[in-house]
């Protein structure tokens, strides 16, 4: 099959990923643009995992004010170089993450940030709810695990579905930007204020 350069260009425009990577993905997907896009997404996630240990001592702080000043968010995103920190894509990512925090009010960045006592309390509540179900202990533990994953998806920023595209989590959104920039990117910290809410 002859490679359709128009498809390659289209994929490049959609993803912002290099022509070479787009060509490989189109070839692998045998000309299917949707499949090629998925291939790039998966590769991006793998590459992002490989870069996750690299130091992110550059970056930027972004803010977002919502509902005419009723909700305010500050978020710090780290990257490896000042060059990426000033990049339009990176700045847009900060804005998107700040809007996500304003809209979905996560309590933690990831499950690693949840204090052990909060996790134990959640598990205790789930086990108590299932006590009278008559299910065996091993099944109850599997159900508790499933409920915990749902808890992570609600309370942890990285596990939340992106408000602009619910097929993508914030973790995957960041992974795509890591793939695009070639640098590690991390949410370092955030704070969300809401008028009338006690801190």
The CATH architecture category of the largest domain equals 2-Layer Sandwich
How large is the radius of gyration?
Answer: 20 Å
Q: At the first level of CATH, what is the class of the largest domain?
A: Alpha Beta
Mean pLDDT: 87
What's the assembly state of these chains? single chain
Beta-strand residue percentage = 15-25%
Bin the helical content. Answer: 40-55%
The largest pleated sheet is described as: 3 strands, antiparallel
**Total strands:** 5
* Neighbour order of strands in the largest sheet: 1-2-5
What does this structure look like?
The protein is of the alpha+beta class and 199 residues long. It has 3 domains: 5-51, Ubiquitin-associated (UBA) domain (Helicase, Ruva Protein, domain 3, Orthogonal Bundle), CATH 1.10.8; 58-109 and 156-194, Elongation factor Ts, dimerisation domain (Tetrahydropterin Synthase, Chain A), CATH 3.30.479.20; 115-154, no CATH class. Strand 1 and strand 2 (71-79) form a beta hairpin. The model has no long low-confidence stretch (mean pLDDT 87). It is globular and about 60 Å long. The strands form 2 sheets. Strands 1-2-5 form a 3-stranded antiparallel sheet. A two-stranded antiparallel sheet has the order 3-4. 54% of the residues lie in helices and 17% in strands.
């Amino acid at each position: 099959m002859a490679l359709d350069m128009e498809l390659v260009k289209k994929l490049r425009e959609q993803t912002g990923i290099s022509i070479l990577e787009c060509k490989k993905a189109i070839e692998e997907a045998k000309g299917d643009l949707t499949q090629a896009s998925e291939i790039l997404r998966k590769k991006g996630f793998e590459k992002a995992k490989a870069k996750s240990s690299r130091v992110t001592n550059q970056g930027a702080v972004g803010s977002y004010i919502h509902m005419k000043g009723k909700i305010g968010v500050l978020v710090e995103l780290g990257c490896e170089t000042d060059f990426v920190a000033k990049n339009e894509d990176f700045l847009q990512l900060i804005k998107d993450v700040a809007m996500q925090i304003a809209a979905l009010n996560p309590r933690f960045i990831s499950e690693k940030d949840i204090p052990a006592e909060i996790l134990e309390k959640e598990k205790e509540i789930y086990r108590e709810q299932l006590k009278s179900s008559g299910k065996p202990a091993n099944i109850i533990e599997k159900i508790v695990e499933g409920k915990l994953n749902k808890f992570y998806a609600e309370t942890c920023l990285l596990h939340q579905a992106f408000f602009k595209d619910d097929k993508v989590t914030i973790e995957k959104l960041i992974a795509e930007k890591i793939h695009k920039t070639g640098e590690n990117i991390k949410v370092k910290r955030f704070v969300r204020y809401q008028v009338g809410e006690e801190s």
